[in-house]
Design goal:
Blueprint lengths: L6 E9 L4 H12 L9 E11 L3 H13 L4 E10 L6 E8 L1 H11 L16 E5 L3 H10 L4 E6 L1 E8 L2 E9 L3
Antiparallel strand pairs: 1-2, 1-7, 3-4, 3-6, 4-5, 7-8
Length: 174
């Protein structure tokens, strides 16, 4: 019998800065009480499982991606939805979407070239997997939301026992 190998469940994201973070966190908790497990963010890579022995290569890859990425402006404006395909309401990006898409493409390469269920669409999730009326209210309530922030890093998060925590932050250096 061999010992089980320890692995990691990792996700890569761009954190939303204050004061927009607090506004969006409060809104998310109104529509989805369990949303507090993770602060508002733009997902770069959705959760993936990585073996312990692969973690150094993953960290080196993401460090390389960050070094080749220039800081950029992220602007949020209004809401959107993935319904009827997926029961999700989100805050949309009005600036920085191409930067996020380029970052996702470069991060999801080499050993990190995992398949995704849906095409990449950068956004900030506000509510998902809740009743249609709740999704409608979330979409309406934040329709006029706007915020602009400087993105200078990305965070690699690890899920441990159902809680997400920052494992490492990678500064953009290009």
């Amino acid at each position: 019998m061999t010992a089980a190998r320890r692995g990691h469940t990792l996700g890569l994201s761009l954190d939303i800065a204050p004061p927009a973070r607090e506004v969006l966190e409060e809104a998310r908790l109104r529509y989805e009480p369990t949303a507090g497990d993770m602060l508002p963010h733009v997902t770069v890579l959705p959760p993936i499982d990585v073996d312990e022995d692969a973690l150094p290569a993953v960290l080196a890859h993401l460090e390389s991606v960050a070094r080749a990425t220039a800081p950029f402006t992220l602007a949020l404006a209004g809401t959107g939805t993935f319904r009827p395909v997926s029961p999700v309401v989100f805050v949309a990006l009005s600036q920085g979407g191409p930067d996020c898409t380029s970052l996702e493409r470069r991060a999801r390469s080499g050993d990190m070239a995992v398949e995704t269920r849906f095409p990449y669409h950068p956004h900030v999730t506000i509510a998902h997997d809740v009743a249609g009326a709740v999704l409608d209210r979330a979409q309406s309530d934040l329709a006029d939301f706007e915020a602009t922030m400087h993105m200078a890093s990305m965070g690699l998060y690890e899920n441990r026992d159902g809680q997400w925590g920052l494992l490492r932050e990678f500064a953009f250096e290009a």
